[in-house]
Amino acid sequence: MSPYTLRYYEREGLIIPQRDKNDRRYYTKQDIGWIGFLLHLKGTGMSMNEIKKYVELRAQGDNTISQRKELLQQVQTNSLSRINEMKMHLEVLNHKIDWYEGKLDHSISEEFADYLKRFE
Amino acid sequence: MSPYTLRYYEREGLIIPQRDKNDRRYYTKQDIGWIGFLLHLKGTGMSMNEIKKYVELRAQGDNTISQRKELLQQVQTNSLSRINEMKMHLEVLNHKIDWYEGKLDHSISEEFADYLKRFE
DNA sequence: TTATTACTTAGAGCGTACTCTAAGTCAAGA
DNA sequence: TCTTGACTTAGAGTACGCTCTAAGTAATAA
């Protein structure tokens, strides 16, 4: 993670690092843990806006826990769908690669265009 | 897929639709099949630049087949890595959701911060 | 014949998530 | 004391993938 990204996240209100007596930033273990968690959220495909929403809810305290949970569950559902979509698209890619193998082997192979029709 | 996107792909050289006598576009079954395949490529996470590269190779004929196959294999590898990454990030999300369940149940639960340390 | 409608083009604009620049401050080493 | 270097800020710029606008043309309906 670049310092640029760190500043950007800070500007967006996702992180609030500590400051020393000279007003310079330092990151506590908690700060770093929190940033790590943000990266996990990002990694699931959560957008900046969703993360901001989550951070706002968090700032409002314990009575937003169920909302936060719902938000994360939504993200979880979306993420799983995206994974499944990618897997489906990968299957076509796999088939195309196999088809290239066939072409390279000069063996008989179903026309790829015909195969593709199965996905329409 | 919006007509805007279709024009965009055309400008980028990914598709070359047919034209009628009045110079208006029409898409043959092959065109549509090709667009469908492009969407599968996109769906695996392939970037416009990678797709353009692929299209260029394709335009050069059969002696680029092994290069095209290698390109797709690279995309396949990247896509699988991304899926696995997402799964890992999802595990953390799942745990956080479970932790919220715990909080909501007022039952004892490991501090999430402690759990997160396991990923550092 | 005129008006409407559906297309055409080039090019500008947008949303997202960064990434970088420029100008300034300030503590520490030579 | 000077200078170096590491930080600070606000704001501009970039890459990607679209998305939209404006101005023009041309076939069809009234």
TrEMBL record, chains A, B:
Keywords: DNA-binding, Repressor, Transcription, Transcription regulation
Classification of source organism: Bacteria, Bacillati, Bacillota, Bacilli, Lactobacillales
CDD domains from the UniProt entry: HTH_YyaN
Family annotation (SUPFAM superfamilies): Putative DNA-binding domain
GO molecular function (one): DNA binding
Matches recorded under Pfam families: MerR_1
The keyword Nucleus belongs to this UniProt entry's keyword annotation: no
Domain of life: Bacteria
Protein's recorded name: Transcriptional regulator
